[in-house]
Amino acid sequence: MEKIEYRVVIKFLTKQGKSAQTILNEMETFYGEQCPSKSMIYKWHGLFKHGRESIEDDPRSGRPVEATTSDIIEKVEKLVLEDTSLKKKQLSALVGVSDTTILRILHDHLGMIKFSARWVPRMLKPLQKQQRVDASKQFLELCGDEPAQILERIVTGDETWVHHFEPEYKQEFNLTALS
């Protein structure tokens, strides 16, 4: 049950003149394990008793809870694809969101991991898989009636990423050699 629905019940029983303890007992009897906490019932009972009419939460000031929008995700993706060696603090400064939001976008939304000072895709997304299937079908159409000659010369593999890495800095080479 939604917290708004609980507040409606508390408001209704408060308007009937019932005490907070009575409301708590009735709600525990009716809702059982789903019943809101005692402190929540007492808090809202007091607010409704002193004239509050709204059952909604009051607006809060400050930063929004979720700063991950599609525009920000696209901006981060564009920046990373232009320069894969950008650090999260640099991305954070360029985009204007926190470091943790940048990491959440890179890992959860873009499916990237940090590999030897570069951001690389972690797994193929369904769209990327479908694009590969479409490209393969187009290739087979181009082969014509006798694809065997061309297909025998193709090396295939699975979707495992094999990273080819040429370090730009000597320090990067030393770090990868140690791991």
What does this structure look like?
The relative contact order is 0.07. The protein is mostly helical and 179 residues long. It is elongated. Helix 1 packs across helix 3 and helix 2 crosses helix 3. It is 56% helix and 4% strand. The two termini are 50 Å apart.
Element pattern in H and E: HHHHHHEEHHH
Average predicted confidence as pLDDT: 80
Largest beta-sheet details: 2 strands, antiparallel
**What overall geometry do the principal axes of the alpha carbons give?**
elongated
Q: Any idea what the radius of gyration is?
A: 29 Å
Report how far the terminal alpha carbons are from each other: 50 Å
Structural class by secondary-structure content = mainly alpha
Per DSSP, what share of the residues sits in E-state strands of 2 or more residues?
A: under 5%
- The poorly predicted ranges are 172-179
E-strand count: 2
- Helix % is 55-70%
Strand order of the largest sheet: 1-2
